[in-house]
Write a structure and sequence with these properties.
Elements lengths: L2 E7 L2 E6 L5 E5 L9 E4 L2 E4 L8 H16 L3 H18 L2 H6 L2 H9 L5 H4 L16
Parallel strand pairs: 3-5
Antiparallel strand pairs: 1-2, 2-3, 4-5
Length: about 140
């Protein structure tokens, strides 16, 4: 597993792995509060370089990359934001809304399974729209 590092500026790195299709950007300036990872097609953006070794976090973000790809990217973001707004009103909490997004439910439930993406059905997040409330 060889890694290629490209330093863009002081606190931003791009890490591309030859054995994987994802690219990771490290930037401490990109995050709000306790959030440490984010997927913006085709990148995984992490708050700290050490997080690139967190297999559960990387798998969580890879699930989001798959969701984005199957929805042709832009519709994913429209759906994600729309669902978040509606659930923020429903739960009266932005954090509860985030934890109950169909995309997040799927990713949190399967982030520990490194084989999940190889067996995941297309649009797998749909079944998480109607699950009971979390967090």
């Amino acid at each position: 597993m060889s890694k290629i590092f490209l330093k863009l500026r002081e606190n931003v790195l791009i890490l591309g792995r030859q054995d994987s299709v994802h690219m990771v950007i490290i930037s401490k300036y990109f995050f709000y509060r306790n959030y440490v990872g984010l997927s913006l097609w085709p990148f995984i953006i992490l708050k700290e370089p050490e997080l690139s070794h967190d297999r559960i976090l990387i798998n969580h973000e890879r699930i989001h990359l798959r969701q984005q790809a199957e929805m042709l990217i832009l519709p994913f973001y429209v759906w994600y934001i729309s669902e978040w707004v509606l659930k923020s009103i429903w739960y009266l909490s932005t954090y509860k809304a985030y934890r109950n997004l169909s995309f997040e439910r799927e990713a949190y439930l399967h982030e520990s399974d490194p084989e999940y993406l190889s067996s995941r059905s297309r649009f797998g997040f749909i079944k998480y729209l109607w699950l009971t409330k979390q967090g």
